């Protein structure tokens, strides 16, 4: 528990730096581009992140899961890199399809389509899940945090340069693309120094031969990751498709400020997963303690959003975005719910129940996307935020029920009294004086 809290501290330190930098580049982008221009920017970024999330396998979990014993680390890393290569191919195809059909469903001008495809391609090539897994396997959270700090730093510097020399959507997208490349190179560099990466072990066959359930775990975690993307980036794309670029831009700002807790939930999840893999006997108790801590933090964060959110929107994005205050508060509540559920979801995945976690996440997410059109017609950005809140709440309730079932199964299989009956026990031997 002490090491877990220390690792979370490292990750939260990185998130704190990221938060400060994000306020800087968010303020520059919103005030420079305006509501509609920032809407175009938000749609392109969401498109790139959606493509990456849909095509990307959660390879960091594979490295932690199958490399934890040390003997299979080279094969686990090779398997993860092979999946990354597959992700690049899949992502390029998906990006080409989505961008070529974008005029039919997204309010993007024709002159921004090639820019959108280029950003999608850079995002896919900058996949960095495998080196992140290597660092987490060895609990190198300080090193990982330092490498990941490259991204917000480059984004902030690029936003300043775009504001000065290229105050257009293209200028800010180029800054974001440069940050993606820089952080990927930094993580691969430090991961290579931590562990020698044997490229000859790149294979899609070795790990499945040693672990028959490997592909089931791979597809379950990939689909779960895709659902997390659907809950955020695809939601922004659909808001833009149904409500226009201005609504997408405002919803993006409200989401980034209000759902900062979702990023915190991901931080907790990423820190706790390796610990749950290494300490299976204490996994349930550890997950329960983390959920209790998260509940306190979530309530405090929602109160901050409620009482300081309007001022924050005005200070960061300007008065043009003040109308999205209640959407931001609702999304903050959804983030608090996700924060409580982060350790529960990680517990299911670490226990080999990734398929259960996927199903529990899938049903509410699909329901939210199906009802999004009606929600926007009902109450605009606030309606879309309520759809996100409903999805998060149902998912976390499902994780809790699944955890209770997992606990009952463990109680059933564990012997109640491991000692033999009293009459069968050997008589105690007499001790020497």
TrEMBL record:
<feature type="transmembrane region" description="Helical">
    <location>
        <begin position="112"/>
        <end position="128"/>
    </location>
</feature>
<feature type="transmembrane region" description="Helical">
    <location>
        <begin position="384"/>
        <end position="406"/>
    </location>
</feature>
<feature type="transmembrane region" description="Helical">
    <location>
        <begin position="7"/>
        <end position="26"/>
    </location>
</feature>
<dbReference type="InterPro" id="IPR002797">
    <property type="entry name" value="Polysacc_synth"/>
</dbReference>
<keyword id="KW-0472">Membrane</keyword>
<feature type="transmembrane region" description="Helical">
    <location>
        <begin position="323"/>
        <end position="344"/>
    </location>
</feature>
<feature type="transmembrane region" description="Helical">
    <location>
        <begin position="356"/>
        <end position="378"/>
    </location>
</feature>
<dbReference type="Pfam" id="PF01943">
    <property type="entry name" value="Polysacc_synt"/>
</dbReference>
<keyword id="KW-1133">Transmembrane helix</keyword>
<dbReference type="InterPro" id="IPR050833">
    <property type="entry name" value="Poly_Biosynth_Transport"/>
</dbReference>
<feature type="transmembrane region" description="Helical">
    <location>
        <begin position="78"/>
        <end position="106"/>
    </location>
</feature>
<feature type="transmembrane region" description="Helical">
    <location>
        <begin position="290"/>
        <end position="311"/>
    </location>
</feature>
<keyword id="KW-1003">Cell membrane</keyword>
<keyword id="KW-0812">Transmembrane</keyword>
<feature type="transmembrane region" description="Helical">
    <location>
        <begin position="38"/>
        <end position="57"/>
    </location>
</feature>
<protein>
    <submittedName>
        <fullName>Lipopolysaccharide biosynthesis protein</fullName>
    </submittedName>
</protein>
């Amino acid at each position: 528990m002490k090491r877990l809290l220390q690792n979370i501290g490292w990750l939260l330190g990185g998130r704190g730096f990221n938060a400060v930098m994000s306020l800087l580049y968010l303020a520059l982008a919103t005030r420079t581009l305006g509501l509609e221009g920032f809407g175009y920017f938000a749609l392109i970024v969401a498109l790139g992140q959606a493509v990456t999330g849909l095509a990307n396998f959660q390879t960091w979990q594979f490295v932690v899961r199958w490399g934890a014993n040390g003997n299979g680390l080279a094969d686990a890393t090779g398997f993860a890199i092979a999946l990354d290569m597959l992700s690049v191919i899949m992502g390029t195809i998906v990006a080409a399809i989505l961008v070529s059909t974008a005029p039919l469903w997204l309010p993007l001008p024709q002159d921004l389509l090639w820019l959108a495809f280029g950003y999608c391609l850079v995002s896919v090539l900058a996949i960095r899940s495998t080196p992140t897994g290597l660092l987490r396997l060895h609990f190198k959270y300080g090193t990982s945090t330092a490498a990941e700090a490259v991204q917000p730093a480059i984004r902030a510097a690029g936003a300043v340069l775009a504001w000065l020399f290229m105050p257009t959507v293209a200028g800010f997208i180029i800054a974001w693309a440069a940050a993606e490349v820089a952080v990927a190179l930094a993580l691969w560099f430090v991961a290579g120094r931590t562990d020698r990466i044997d490229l000859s072990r790149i294979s899609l066959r070795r790990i499945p031969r040693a672990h028959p359930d490997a592909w089931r775990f791979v597809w379950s975690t990939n689909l779960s990751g895709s659902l997390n993307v659907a809950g955020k980036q695809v939601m922004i794309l659909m808001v833009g498709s149904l409500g226009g670029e201005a609504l997408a831009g405002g919803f993006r700002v409200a989401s980034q400020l209000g759902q900062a807790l979702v990023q915190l939930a991901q931080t907790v999840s990423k820190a706790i997963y390796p610990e749950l893999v290494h300490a299976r006997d204490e996994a349930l108790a550890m997950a329960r303690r983390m959920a209790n801590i998260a509940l306190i933090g979530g309530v405090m964060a929602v109160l901050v959003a409620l009482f300081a959110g309007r001022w924050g929107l005005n200070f960061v994005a300007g008065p043009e975005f003040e109308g999205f205050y209640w959407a931001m508060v609702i999304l903050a509540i959804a983030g608090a719910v996700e924060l409580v559920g982060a350790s529960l979801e990680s517990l299911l995945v670490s226990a080999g129940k990734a398929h259960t976690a996927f199903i529990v996440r899938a049903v509410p997410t699909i329901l939210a996307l199906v009802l999004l059109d009606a929600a926007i017609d009902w109450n605009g950005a606030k309606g879309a935020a309520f759809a996100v809140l409903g999805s998060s709440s149902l998912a976390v309730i499902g994780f809790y029920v699944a955890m209770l079932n997992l606990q009952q199964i463990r109680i059933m299989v564990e012997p109640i009294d491991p000692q033999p009956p009293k009459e069968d026990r050997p008589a105690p031997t007499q001790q020497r004086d």
